């Protein structure tokens, strides 16, 4: 049903030098190595029985990172700039901040004469915690949303795993999916479809803990996985970085741009919050 985002954005990790663009500008991402394992799909990924079981509430305390996009994008945010990539080409020119929102825009770039998406990665390493992102996205075929955690070192994928909070490839933006990947064989567990009008603002959040990975939509649990759901267990080998993407595509996972697609498709991010796992947390 769904093509793995490894084919559109999971190969997003930053590789090579990151060049600063001034004190108030974000870094530009060097050309990434796109990981596109053949035949790897999320279609048929098992939905664990643990999804239906409410999880124990965690007292997260105050956020250790809070981004409200009230000014220029800080140097903590790397901007993807890979306009010549064969899959999911992206441009830093399609990233902007205004009115307290981060905008990722998909559309034909006049500088390159090709259809491009956009993406950013928060350059801070995390292992475990709680992550919240409030966002919306325009309807339109040709682009897919991906919000995920990716191993710091690109070469550690797939062994170190990948935590896909949410993926939206449906052009109407009325359904979403989420997955966890781990192990050398890229084992996958996830939820293939849940409902929501994502043209309006929603908050996706995730707990990444030693004993579970749980996704929430507007505070309601939609997915939960425990170590026994994958032969390789849950991701725990590597620190990871948060990535937010609007990926361009025209293939099985991302329906091609069509006459109904607006000239520009915009993903708006209102805020991001990250919380540290409590020191006294006990599974």
TrEMBL record:
<dbReference type="InterPro" id="IPR000757">
    <property type="entry name" value="Beta-glucanase-like"/>
</dbReference>
<keyword id="KW-0732">Signal</keyword>
<feature type="domain" description="GH16">
    <location>
        <begin position="57"/>
        <end position="280"/>
    </location>
</feature>
<dbReference type="InterPro" id="IPR050546">
    <property type="entry name" value="Glycosyl_Hydrlase_16"/>
</dbReference>
<feature type="signal peptide">
    <location>
        <begin position="1"/>
        <end position="19"/>
    </location>
</feature>
<comment type="similarity">
    <text>Belongs to the glycosyl hydrolase 16 family.</text>
</comment>
<protein>
    <recommendedName>
        <fullName>GH16 domain-containing protein</fullName>
    </recommendedName>
</protein>
<dbReference type="GO" id="GO:0005975">
    <property type="term" value="P:carbohydrate metabolic process"/>
</dbReference>
<dbReference type="Pfam" id="PF00722">
    <property type="entry name" value="Glyco_hydro_16"/>
</dbReference>
<dbReference type="InterPro" id="IPR013320">
    <property type="entry name" value="ConA-like_dom_sf"/>
</dbReference>
<dbReference type="GO" id="GO:0004553">
    <property type="term" value="F:hydrolase activity, hydrolyzing O-glycosyl compounds"/>
</dbReference>
């Amino acid at each position: 049903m769904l093509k793995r985002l490894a084919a559109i954005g999971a190969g997003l990790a930053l590789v090579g030098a990151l060049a600063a663009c001034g004190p108030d500008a974000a870094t530009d991402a060097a050309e990434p190595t796109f990981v596109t394992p053949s035949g790897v799909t999320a279609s048929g990924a098992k939905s664990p029985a643990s999804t239906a079981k409410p999880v124990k509430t965690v007292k997260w305390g105050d956020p250790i990172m809070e981004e409200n996009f009230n000014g220029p994008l800080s140097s903590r945010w790397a901007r993807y700039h890979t306009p010549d990539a064969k899959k999911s080409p992206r441009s830093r020119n399609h990233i902007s901040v205004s009115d307290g929102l981060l905008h990722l825009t998909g559309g034909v770039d006049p500088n390159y004469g090709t259809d491009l998406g956009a993406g950013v990665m928060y350059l801070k390493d995390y292992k475990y915690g709680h992550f919240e992102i409030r966002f919306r996205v325009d309807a339109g075929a040709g682009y897919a949303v991906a919000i995920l955690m990716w191993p710091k070192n690109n070469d550690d994928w797939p062994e170190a795993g990948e935590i896909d909070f949410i993926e939206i490839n449906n052009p109407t933006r009325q359904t979403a999916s989420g997955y966890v990947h781990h192990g050398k064989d890229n084992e996958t567990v996830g939820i293939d479809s849940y409902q929501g009008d994502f043209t309006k603002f929603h908050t996706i959040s995730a707990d990444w803990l030693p004993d579970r990975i749980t996704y929430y939509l507007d505070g309601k649990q939609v997915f939960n996985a425990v170590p026994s759901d994958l032969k390789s267990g849950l991701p725990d080998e590597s620190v990871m970085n948060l990535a937010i993407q609007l990926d361009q595509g025209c293939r099985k996972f991302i329906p091609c741009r069509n006459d109904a697609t607006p000239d520009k498709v915009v993903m708006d991010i209102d805020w991001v919050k990250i919380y540290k796992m409590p020191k006294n947390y006990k599974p």
